[in-house]
# Entry
Amino acid sequence: PSRADIVTFSDPPLPPGADPFVVPGDGPAAGIALAGPDPAWPERYGALAARVRAALGWRVLALEHVGSTSVPGLAAKPVIDIDLTVADPAREQAYVPALEAAGFRLIIREPWWYGHRMLRADDPACNMHVFGFDSPELIRHRIFRDWLRGNPGDRDRYAAAKRAAAAAANAAGEHVMQYNARKQQVIRDIYQRAFAASGLLDGPPVGSRS
# Structure
């Protein structure tokens, strides 16, 4: 991806008649439960990563622990977020059946957004996001993770934003996507500093999705 691709957030509209959720009823749930930092989260990621690599072998082009559970000292929903890079997310037959046999299930299919697919697993709880190697979202996730790991002030600011967003979303009976929207401005501000520090950005990032 180009520098412009990385710093520009894209949120294309849902195509007419499209539904990203593969199974009805698997949509975003209401109720946001944040947990305190758990030193066991990296171990849980390790167990999940071993399952993915055993299932897919060399079809795993990259595998990353991302999201809040990948940042020491950060409160998070106790769900491990993983980015899986494959050659072509659209070729689901190349990876989905093998992952289903390993205990994952396909939840989201968004070919209009960088080819994104998401699979979910339980015990430990996991959301695994699948992208092609040319997706800028993969790079953004790593930049955000590494910036929070190295900048405790922004980590704590993000933690405060998460707690405030969770309290407001729960009071209003909102689901997780609305919770994400409530903390989006803080995420954007942090991205701006991370992009600028990395030499990727001279001005503010544009767009609307994180």
User: Anything to note?
Assistant: Strands lie at 62-66, 80-86, 105-110, 116-121, 126-132. The CA atoms of residues 80 and 178 lie 20 Å apart. The chain has a mean pLDDT of 93. The first strand starts at residue 62 and ends at 66.
